[in-house]
Write a structure and sequence with these properties.
One of its GO terms (molecular function) is chorismate mutase activity. Its EC number is 4.2.1.51, 5.4.99.5. Its main location: cytoplasm. Residues 299-376 form the ACT domain. The chain is built from 13 helices and 15 strands. It has 393 residues and is α/β, with parallel strands linked by helices. It folds into 4 domains: 7-96, Chorismate mutase (Chorismate Mutase Domain, subunit A); 97-188 and 277-284, D-Maltodextrin-Binding Protein, domain 2 (3-Layer(aba) Sandwich), CATH 3.40.190; 191-267, 3-Layer(aba) Sandwich (D-Maltodextrin-Binding Protein, domain 2); 296-376, 2-Layer Sandwich (Alpha-Beta Plaits), CATH 3.30.70. Strands 1, 2, 3, 4, 5 and 11 form a 6-stranded mixed beta sheet that branches. A 5-stranded mixed beta sheet has the order 8-7-9-6-10. β13 (324-333) and β14 form a beta hairpin. α1 (7-41) packs across α3 (69-95). The longest helix is centred in the N-terminal third of the chain and has 35 residues, at 7-41. The radius of gyration is 24 Å and the shape is globular. It starts with 6 loop residues before the first helix and ends with a helix.
Length: 393
């Protein structure tokens, strides 16, 4: 018999964890059945009133078992989000049967361990078919790999909550014939990674992608006598530190990526904003059909005339058609000094009448307007329920 008094308690916890996983798997199976019914009946994926009632009931039940309302809320936000994304993936697969292939060839920036690699793994974990990863050294190479049919998809970072839009990707979108077919938001948690037992004050050289340096500028500003060397990707930075294997060099990247290169964390939470997320888009040669039951987003690029108020006139088209714009980004037009291309993210489905009308009016109002893609929105808004209100209801 073990002398460790914690062992029997830990064994019970392990057994409970196994039961939890079995129940979560059963719940996921049931939500897949729900998705099948929604496909057949044309029912929307989300039912806000049902979600709100469910969460209030769970909070009250949790209180009876001594569970904190905020803990219950956070837990079921994750479960509901997973359910919604799984249902959306099933609906999308049903609407696009030609895309179901045994192999998904996906191009992304860097190699194993880069943030784009982690985002690729996350996005395609909900899609059928085996994943073939194709690491690239630049955004231009990623686009070329899909355009030349060496890959089926590309995953590209488009913006970050700390450093803003990734202009190079927007510039690539201006010229490619590829379509945006998906999106995802991935948490980015920058760490200082080393290959040997060392301390922060011993570091003299830092490797990272330029975007990482931009997102961690406050942390870097506190350091002195450190050379900052840009790398093509976070994975390239981590590989370099692994190869050098010296106590005076470090890389900046994710803890999960660092483990793939045998690196350990000596500092964490380095980003300027502690809630640091990157949004990625998924592009392919052909557009996808988005069922009307799924919340959709449409991205387009346009150029207005050089007349006063031309941009305002274009944006008024969206307002008059009741279409919500979630992002507006401008980029210079190569060869046309002081002229801009405008990129717009819009909440709406191209199959919807008001969206079709808005696009047609934009084409008439602007000198150039092109839809870059209509795709399922994976920006899942959590059910807004006050835990306190739920308990006093």
């Amino acid at each position: 018999m073990s002398d460790n008094p914690l062992l029997p308690i830990r064994e019970k916890i392990t057994a409970l964890d196994k039961n939890l996983l079995e129940m979560l798997a059963e719940r996921q199976s049931l939500t897949n059945q729900v998705a099948a019914t929604k496909i057949a009946e044309g029912i929307d994926v989300r039912d806000p009133k049902r979600e709100e009632q469910l969460l209030i009931s769970l909070i009250k039940t949790g209180q009876k078992f001594g569970l904190d309302p905020h803990y219950v809320t956070k837990l079921f936000h994750v479960i509901i989000e997973d359910s919604v994304l799984n249902q959306q993936a099933l609906l999308s697969a049903k609407a696009n049967p030609d895309l179901a292939t045994p192999l998904n060839r996906v191009a992304f920036l860097g190699s194993k361990g880069s943030y784009s690699y982690l985002a690729t793994q996350k996005y395609f974990s909900r899609r059928s078919g085996e994943l073939l990863e194709i690491g690239c050294d630049s955004f231009a190479e990623i686009i070329e790999t899909v355009e030349s049919n060496q890959a089926d998809y590309a995953v590209l970072p488009i913006e970050n909550t700390s450093s803003g839009s990734i202009n190079e990707v927007y510039d690539q979108l201006q010229h490619t014939r590829l379509s945006i077919v998906g999106e995802l938001t991935h948490p980015v948690q920058h760490c200082l990674l080393v290959a040997t037992d060392t301390k922060l004050e011993d570091i003299r050289t830092l490797y990272a992608h330029p975007q990482v340096f931009a997102q961690c500028s406050h942390f870097l500003g506190k350091l002195s006598d450190i050379e900052v060397i840009p790398a093509d990707s976070t994975s390239a930075a981590m590989l370099k530190v692994n190869e050098l294997n010296r106590p005076d060099v470090a890389a900046m990247g994710s803890e999960a990526g660092g483990k793939l290169y045998g690196l350990s964390v000596i500092e964490s939470n380095l980003a300027n904003q502690k809630e640091n997320h990157s949004r990625f888009i998924v592009v392919a040669q052909n557009a996808v059909t988005v069922p009307l039951q799924i919340p959709a987003k449409t991205t387009l690029v346009m150029a207005t005339t050089q007349a006063p108020g031309a941009l305002v006139d274009a944006l008024m088209v969206l307002k008059e058609n009741g279409v919500n714009m979630t992002k507006l980004e401008s980029r210079p037009i190569n060869g046309n000094p002081w002229e801009e291309m405008f990129y717009l993210d819009i909440e709406g489905n191209l199959q919807d009448g008001k969206m079709q009308q808005a696009i047609e009016q934009l084409k008439a109002t602007t000198r150039f307007c092109k839809v870059l893609g209509c795709y399922p929105s994976e920006d899942i808004k959590h059910t807004a329920v006050s835990a306190v209100a739920a308990l006093t209801d």
